[in-house]
Each structure stands twice: as structure tokens, then as C-alpha cells.
Amino acid sequence: MRNNNVSIIGAGLIGSLLGIYLRKKGLEVGLYEKRSDLRDKNNVPEGRSINMALSDRGWKALDRIGLREKVSPMALPMYGRSIHDEHGETSFLPYGKENQAIYSISRRDFNELLINEAESAGVNVFFDHLCEEIDISKTSLRFSYADGQKFSKESDVIIGADGAYSSLRDAMQKQTRLNYKQEYISHGYKELTIPATADGEFAMDPKALHIWPRGMFMLIALPNPDKTFTCTLFLPFEGEKVCFDKINDKSDLESVFRTFFNDAFELMPNLTDEFFNNPTSSLINVECFPWQKNKSLLIGDACHAMVPFFGQGMNCGFEDCFILDELIEKFGTTSWELVFEKFQKIRKPDTDAISQMARDNFVEMRDSVANPKFIIRKKIEAKLHELYPHEWVPLYTMVTFSDMKYSDAYAQGRLQNEIMDKVMSDPRITQNYKDINYEEIIHLIETARMV
Fold first, then answer.
1. SS3 category, 197
2. Which terminus of the chain has a lower count of CB atoms within 10 Å, N or C?
3. pLDDT digits (tens, 9 = 90+) for 292-308
């Protein structure tokens, strides 16, 4: 049968998951990855595996194909932010209600599991296949191998799940009228580690995402099942103060960490080796449209790469797979162009919204969380949600612990933010926020909605 042969470019998290979804639809699926098989430990690149934060949207996509039970042992719950000040003191801010958590999971281990599941489902996975050329009109692909040999393939459908530097998107830019925008933020990141203690235990609370917010830069740490923490240092690439360009030797590095992250520094015996051996990576935001042409489609980071500061990049990509699967279920596999057109129309407003929220949350994580007024603000919002669970839902809860459309969450969050700005402008709030008239705040919200 025609229309049943699908080529997916990119065997990362999104491509592997999508391969499983499509294979379960009875389609013939080829998954093509330019890198070597990451399950070969000798071929795993170190220093760029920011731990992922798996939340409700991601779990929902995994549940649809019955993978929760296999993924759960790899995922550690984090119930809130543990904020470290410059004196080593910590304060805890819950993410949501009791028992609501996001889950720390290793990118590499998760990817391995999904590739294994894809192969078990019958997906044909090909590594060391660099996609050099795609003909959109003919849905044909040309690959080259590591030894220089070349290989061409025709396919009924091509889906680009190959990330922010997508080869399918490049082909679309050359062959179609595709609008494209990319933006690098001023900060980069470097992966570091806090090992387990001498007793083999966690060095910090494993039930929290740890943040050292320092204004224009920050350090975060997420727990791993082996009792280590994967840390990510976010710094400007260049500038007058603390930045990657100004850390040139061990003395520079220790000075920065002792000054700004001293409690973490005491837990990082391999800091120097890791800092100077692990790569410094960039953070990019990508927007483009349209996402499809004929029987070719972009998905995940290939069409909406975002900075990682709301923890939704992977979850958003998994939700892409879930929604695409629903559309295939509705319209079948003989109407790919209709399916793809419906998909981009549904998803584009939502991915634009979460990309913006991710950029906004960067400022909150590196700066606002260290402000006492911010902590009070979050406590007020939590109390409002407790008293009026349907009228007031914090933005983080809408995004992380529900499947509300991102665009709806963004609009509601902006409205609530305006109300909270008015509330926090009252100087009495910082003196005794427990005496707040919550009914009055809800009345303000309802009035604003009517306007």
C-alpha cells in the first residue's frame, strides 16, 4: 500500500517516540540518525545531556503507548525548587499541591529506552546516516555514511524530528516559501556533577530541583538514580562581570564558585576537570512556518526549539506526537497533507506561547526566585489556588500539571500576573500577607475577564 512508508530523520527523544506511535499504527517506519548508536558507551558525547524534567504532558504521551511502567524507575520526583542563597541557606518553594512533582530523568538513558522500544515495535533504526539532501516534491532522501558512501531512498512521508539544526527544515527553506527565525540568547551552559557522598547517598535533598540564582547567571542541579546530581551552569558567554570568557584557569573558576556557589563548590571535587573538559553549549530559540509541505512535516525542536527554562521542550515535543497521533486516528493514513495541515494549525499558537513563557521563566529562575517578595507572591498564589481551585490556577500549574493549551495558559497567566502586580504594589503585603482579602482578588480577576 502507498502512503505507509514513513522516514523519520532524527532518533532523539521525539523521533524515537514518534517512531513507536507510527509503528503502532501499522506503518513501515525508518528512523535515521546521523550520530553513532548512543547505546555504544564509547560513542556517547559527554557534557551536553541536560537532565530532562518530565511532567504531565510527557507522561500523557507515554501512557498512550503503555510506557509509564518502564520509564518510572528512571525518573525521580522533584516536588519544588530548593533555592540556595549566597550564604548557603536554602528555602523550598513547592511546584504545586501536595504530591505534585516534575521528574528528573537522564536524557541519554531515556533516549536509549525509547530507541530500544522503537526497535522492539518494529521500527528500522539506522545510525551513522547523515541526511545530505531531501527533495520535498519527490519525498526522496540522500544519506552519506561515515566512510563516504552514499545512499538514496524514496519515501511516502518524511518527518523531520532532527532538532534545532534540522536538515529537513533546511531543505524546506531552499525549496518552499518557509519563514524562519532563530535567536541565540546571550547565555550558554556547561554540564557539571555533584557526586554521591562517601556513604553512597545524595549530597543534597533529592526531592527538589536545586537553584542558585545570581541575577545574570545561575546554577541548577537535578537528582539521578545513582545518587548523583547533574548540574548545569548558565553564564553569559561574554561581559564585564562573571561570564565564560573570563574563566580561563582553575583560579578563576574557584574564585567564581567560592564567591557565588560556595555550598555547591564544597560538593564538587571534579569541578575543574569537568569545567575545562566539557563543552560550553549554546541556547537557541527557533520559530518557523509553515511546518509542512506536501507529505513532509517538521516536529519538535525542528520547528519550535526553545530555551530550557520552563522544562517543557521535551514535554511539548511529546505532546506533538500525541496530537499528531490523534489526527492520524481521525483522518487515516491516506490523507497525510490534511493531517499535517491540521497539525500545524493546532500547534503553532501553542508552541509560540510556550517558547515565550520559557524565555520569560529564565528571568524568573536566575533573578526573581531570590527576591523575598517573589516568595511571598508565590505563597499568595498557592493560597488562592487552594481557596479557589477553579478561578485561580497558577501559570506553572497550568503548564506543568495539566494539558491545557499552552496559548490559553499564557493568556490566563498574563491576566493573573497583572492582578498580582496590583496586589504586590500594596506595601502592607510584605508586612503581613496572611491578612489578604482573597475574595477581593478573585473579584478583580472576574472584573478583568469581563473587560
1. coil
2. C
3. 999 999 999 999 999 99
